[in-house]
Amino acid sequence: MNEKQTSILLEQLRPALVLLALLTLLTGVAYPLAMTGLAQLIFPDQANGSIITRDGEAVGSELIGQSFDDPGYFWGRLSATGPFPYNAAASSGSNYGPLNPALFDMVQARIDALHAADPGNTAPIPVDLVTASGSGLDPDISPAAAYYQVPRVARERSLDEAVVRQLVENQIRERLWGVFGEPRVNVLELNLALDKFQTKGDS
User: Fold this and answer.
1) Which label site among 3, 87, 112, 130 has the fewest CB atoms less than 10 Å from its CB?
2) Which among 90, 97, 87 has a CA at the least distance from the CA of 131?
3) Are β-strands 140-141 and 51-54 bridged in parallel, bridged antiparallel, or unpaired?
């Protein structure tokens, strides 16, 4: 390559490299910093993971479920993530179709667990207590799923059912703007409210 060709090549490369550098700074540095700053300014709680604290310590996120199997607590939805439930690094649903025997086995196992924990409860089991969500991380259950568990939780904690039912009612979140989504109960927040109520009662 002679000197003239090299000069032409450099003239063609220079604007491309300058544009690459400018776009890298704009989209790789300036834009993320601006969005991060804006999020921290307008939605600081959500931008920091919607962390739930108790006594000043983080106990979980409002957006990611936790596994509860103690009969004295409300249970959430099943989680299909691996290698452990509610693994935020492996969000996924079961992908089982309605005719898949594995789905039937999973649902039946949860039904058996619910009946074993509360054999006297003959009410129909809400579907969200025996199925996983699409993400496998759903932190919420329906009010019906929470009310179904009231007798068991009240019995295990030696509380009046009306008291536990009221705690559930206090935790119900209505549809966004009265239109979007469905009424729901955050399982972690409900269990924390349950612990707090009983701690106050014992003090």
Assistant:
1) 3
2) 97
3) unpaired
